[in-house]
Amino acid sequence: MPADTTLLVVNAGSSSIKFQLFEVLADDRLDLELKGQMEGIGTRPRLEAEDGEGRSVANTGYAPGEIPGLAEALQELGGWLDRQLDGHRPLAVGHRVVHGGPSYAEPVAIDDEVIAKLDALVGLAPLHQPNNLAPIRAIRGRYPDLLQVACFDTAFHRHHPEVADRFAIPDTFHREGVRRYGFHGLSYAYIAHRLRELDPALAAGRVVACHLGSGASMCAIQDGRSVDSTMGFTAVDGLPMGTRTGQLDPGVLLYLLQSKGYDAPRIEAFLYKEGGLKGLSGISNDVRDLLASSEPGAKRALDYFVYRIARETGSLAAAMGGIDGIVFTAGIGENSAEIRGRVVERLAWLGCALEPAANAGHGPLISTPASRLKVYVIPTNEELMIARHTLAVLRGRTSG
Length: 400
Prior knowledge:
It contains 16 helices and 13 strands. It is α/β, with parallel strands linked by helices. Helix 1 (about 70-85) packs across helix 3 (about 130-140) and helix 6 (about 185-200) crosses helix 16. Helices cover about 40% and strands about 20% of the residues.
């Protein structure tokens, strides 16, 4: 695999760094060569990787003190990748960046100005943006001339009708960028693309996509374009998530400020780390743990999660003037037949019905032939979308 025909994709989170390495073929098709992650950073660090055929090429555990933080993880992973490429460099590196703010509606080549603008958005995505920027800085420090491309989770939603993106606040704030952005856009862009391959007629219609994982959101997609999303100004809005509250009356925050003496950092911790499934259950932020538990808190959390998904389906259907199908994706959406079944059961009023065997087998098509709505399970692939975007920026730069 010549190093000068590869693209590297980096997706850095709070406790893990996912990566994929693609070879760019003669017709610009992307062939997966390596896939893996450094996970458990600071707790139980482990580097796992496999080749394009699914064969393990790395499975290394570390003591917590060896990889205490993201910087050490980036150094260790960077050295491992260098050895895989025999010390050569890829053509370019593509990064997932959660928040692009008002400036970026498309992927962009990274320079000092881009980094400064993305730094200014850290407060809008405090769990994600700093970690997204860390590998960008690390690679720039080592290879300052290597093309790096930022691919934004907000970009897929940037063409909403204005009425969907405004808050009912003075216009001056909207002009400053206080507006609904939406997130998980790389995932939704992949779903829209994949659905065109699986079911072109449905892809041309009105679909509610449910990205259900530790971070969770839903998106109204009409003819392949985002119409509305449950997430807003930040990635804490909308559905309850693993530890994020989801939609919350702002009056609750005023109560915490005025009656409980919370300051801004305490509010941030409350919104991002103490709510969601963990806060509701008092047990865990992991749906697998909650499904296995007989505790009342576990039932309460799952009932609320399912209720909000069903409720938001109706809201997003209204934004499109109807609904033709539903797609489940991400960790919970792809793997939990029980959650899918409970959501669709609540949507029976729409004429929605699942085929139990297909649902248990995780699809892709899990609705019955008689169901008025088609229901799919489509595994997402954000890294492939990042690679495609990165190649497009690279080719544009090369042709220019």
